[in-house]
Every structure is written in C-alpha cells, then in structure tokens.
Amino acid sequence: MRRYEFNMTSGKIWTVLLAFTWPLLLENLLQLLYYTADSVIVGRYVGVSALAAVSATTHICGMLVRFFNGTATGAGVVISRAFGANDRERLSESIKTSLILTLTGCVLLTLFGVSLSRFFLERMSTPPDVIGEADLYLKIYFGGISGLLFYNIGGAILRAMGDTRRPLFFLIVCSVLNIVMDIAFVKIGWGIAGVAIATIAAQALSACLVIYTVIKSAGLSGKWRIDREIARMILKIGLPFGVQMAVVAFSNVFVQGYINVFGTAYIAGWGVYMKLDQYMMLPTQSMGQAVTVFTGQNLGAEKRGRAISGTWTALAMMLVISSGIASTLCVFAPVFASLFSPDVRVIEYGSFFIRMCTPVAVICCFNQILSGYLRGDGNSRMPMIITLCTHVFFRQIYLAVMTRIIPGNVYVVGFGYPAGWILCAVMMTVYYFVWQARRS
Questions:
Q1: Domain ranges of the chain
Q2: Quick check: 350 and 340 in contact, CB under 8 A?
Q3: In the prediction, which pLDDT does 429 show?
Q4: Residue 217 CB coordination number (10 Å)
Q5: Quick count: other Cβ atoms within 10 Å of Cβ 381?
Q6: Closest CA to 64 of 131, 134, 149, 130
Q7: How far apart are CA 418 and CA 313, in angstroms?
Q8: Between the CA of residue 49 and those of 66, 127, 128, 141, 247, what are the distances in Å?
Q9: Residue 191 and which of 13, 79, 156, 278 are 20 to 30 A apart at CA?
Q10: Which DSSP string corresponds to 108-122?
Q11: CA atoms within 13 A on the CB side of 76
Q12: How far apart are CA 106 and CA 214, in angstroms?
C-alpha cells in the first residue's frame, strides 16, 4: 500500500472511521470557512446590506455546486471499489474519466451560473438594496467556479483511496490565504467584489495542488479518454445524489424567498443561522462521506457484515457529537450571532433561528449516515427520492399551507426545515431496513 493510502477493510471499526473522518472533517470545516469568512468580513467591515447580499447568494451557489459535488460522489464510489479490490488498471481509468467529466462540468456550470444569477435573485424577491451587490458577488463567484470543482473532485479521488491528509493540508494553506486576501481587498475598498475575488483565487490554488497530487500519486499515464462503462457507473450512482442535492438547494431558494419578504435584518439573521447550521451538520456530513467510502471498500473486498457494523457505529458516534454541538449553539447563540454582525436585530433574529432549529438537526444523523451506506452500496436512487419528498415537496407544501394559516410570521417559515428533517429521518430508517432485507 502506498504511503497516503488508507485501507478500511481491516482494524477496529470505530478507530478506522475516526481516523478517516477527522482530517475529512477539518477539510470540510476549512472549506466552509471560505464562505464564513466572506460573511463575517463583509458583515463587520462593509455593512448589514452587504451581509444580506452574501446571505442571499448562499442557496443559489449551493444549488449548482451541490449538483456537481453530488455527482462527484459517484466517482468516489467507483474509485473506492476499485481500490478495495486492488484493481490498479480500473483505478487509473476511473480517475481519468472523472477528471474529464469534471472539465465538462466546469464549462457548463460557469455558463449557467453567470448567465442566470440575476434571474434567480429576482425570483427570490431579493430587496433592491441587496440585489446589486448579490448579483456582482455571484457573477465573480461562478466566473471562477472551476477551482472549487476541481478541488472537490480531486479531494474525492484521494479520499476514495483513503488519503484525507494531503487535501486537508492544501486547504489549510488556501484558507489562510483566502482570509488574508478577504481583509486586504476590503481594506483597499473593493468591497463585496474583493471578497468574491479572494475566494476564487484561493480555490484555484487549492485545485492546482490537489490535481497535481492526484496525477502524481496515481501514476496516470497513457491515453486520456472517457471509459464509457466507468462513466455510466459514475453517473448512475452520482446523478441521483447530485439531483437530490441540487433540488434540495433549489427548494431552499424558495424558502429564502419567503424569508426575504420580511426585510434586510431578517435576511441577515437567517443567513447567520444558515452559516452556523452548516457547522452543526459538518461532522455528520463528514462521517456520512466516510461511511460511503468505508462501505465501498468493504463491499469491494466482499465484507458486507463489516460495512453494516460500520454504519451503526458511525450513527452512534454522531448522535453523541451532534447533541453536544447543538447544546453549545443554543446556549451561546447570541455570542455566535454577534461574530457576524454587531447589529442588535441581526443578533436577535439569528439567535432565535438557531435555538428553534439546531436541537432538531440532531435527527439528521439518521439521514446522513444511512444514506451514506446506501450510496456506498450503489443505491443512490432511493435516498434521492426520500430526500426530495421530505426536503422539497413536503417543505413546499408546509410553507404554502402554514403561511396562509399563520401569515406574517417568519418563525413559522423557519420551522419548515426541522419539519422536513424529522420526516426524512423516519423514511430513511424504514427504507434502510427494507434494503437490508432485500440484500440478505
């Protein structure tokens, strides 16, 4: 086994999962800091309207980027199975195919994002004092989106082979660079445009580092081409997850639209909660990614029992950890909210949203861990269907009904998130047992 590769088919399950997850968690944390730094810096040094502008772009960025990242999960599953089976030829062809598909995705996502940014902001009822800066931020962001996409696919490839350390190191360097450039560009008067430029420049550097590492580590040589059979498997597994993540983010655009009608302070407060919610979800999402790789490697090595045991071990650990994080956020909600803005209204509204939603977010452990197992087992269709039904259709029905029964109440709108999480956890757990019964 090569130096940075990590075989998950042997050893104590909980130690293997934690050893794989902690650098992945730090990597995801640092990547999230890219966007948190944008919010904190513009909120404290540019103003509330600029913070609202960045907040208003969150779900649009997420919708398009998550589609690609979800699809990239298919590459991770295919590569992890080839790695678990020690099939070096298939591993090489899988990596080449993944990188070529990524290049195509970069072109499409750049064109789509730049051309439709204003359209989406208008459909979200973005206030006039916010929409101009939000549109500028989005156009710059999507103009340089290739760096983020190539970093994410490169990181997914390395993680599928058990390497979480080098992507983490690259991201540490680039995260520090991003924050330094954020502050410098704001100080010289570039405002929200400077924050966007700093983000895409740091992402471009991280992409160059990780892709160079992939090519060197895998020893890629010979003809570069798309292997049709591998591409079909990547898309079969990844597209449903990509559609799931994109449509969920798209539904969040509509939720943001409901929030936007309450004004700038509420938009900023909701944006503060959404940033902190991402931190709340991060450990579970990282463990879900680890479970997908763990499952893929162990099924590739024909160890289904170990894959199942790993799923329940991961779930137990995440329930404990998520409960601790939720408790901390609720107790210190005003302190965390004040990091983003000194405005009293933003702190008040952000704190209320935090205390209303984060305790229920613990239940998302079931959604992330069980769907991670199913994707590692090659089944991403039903997790997609369940998530769409609960996070999209149910949530939209809830908002349409409840805003008519109790009109003009922003907190009724915000509770649409916890309501969808609860239903999703129940359906995902039931389906997991149905799937296992079929496979036994």
A1: 13-439
A2: yes
A3: 95
A4: 18
A5: 17
A6: 149
A7: 25
A8: 26, 10, 10, 18, 27
A9: 278
A10: HHHHHHHHHHHHHHH
A11: 34
A12: 18
